[in-house]
Amino acid sequence: MAHLNKNPADKERFICIYPAFINSKKTIAEGRRIPVDKAVENPTYGEIRDVLTAAGANVIVENKLYPREWNRDVQFRGRIRVQLKKEDGSLYLEQFSSRKDIMLYVAETIPKLKTRTQKTGGGDQNAQQGEGGKKGKKKKK
């Protein structure tokens, strides 16, 4: 019960969020903590940081890797620490009463980011054009 004596505003008491927690491509065994239909496809720590900072949360980014993550790429790195409570024990932000509230908010907001909307729009068109060109070349041979 040592945690009861510690200040909730200490950086060590901030809650941890890894991108795997809200990744729709992960299974529960691989670390997803929210339902698939509410999860986001391959979120990055930068997107999580941007969303929480915009919401007014106190956020710290750490260069850590989720232990269940088998891929060691830079893309999958990053741990976000978020302050849940103030020194007196009251909530830092009223909209975030638990770590699950934070994860659901982040997963709901990331698809609305400008970087996400631009990437998906342009990426799909390029993929379709590329596939069409490859099919045409195979028929000529």
From TrEMBL:
It comes from the Eukaryota. It is found in: Cytoplasm. InterPro entries: Signal_recog_particle_SRP19 (IPR002778), SRP19-like_sf (IPR036521). Residues 115-141 are annotated as: Disordered. It holds the Pfam family SRP19. The keyword Coiled coil does not apply. Keywords: Cytoplasm, Ribonucleoprotein, Signal recognition particle. Belongs to the SRP19 family. Component of the signal recognition particle (SRP) complex, a ribonucleoprotein complex that mediates the cotranslational targeting of secretory and membrane proteins to the endoplasmic reticulum (ER). Binds directly to 7SL RNA. Mediates binding of SRP54 to the SRP complex. This is Signal recognition particle 19 kDa protein. The keyword Cytoplasm applies.
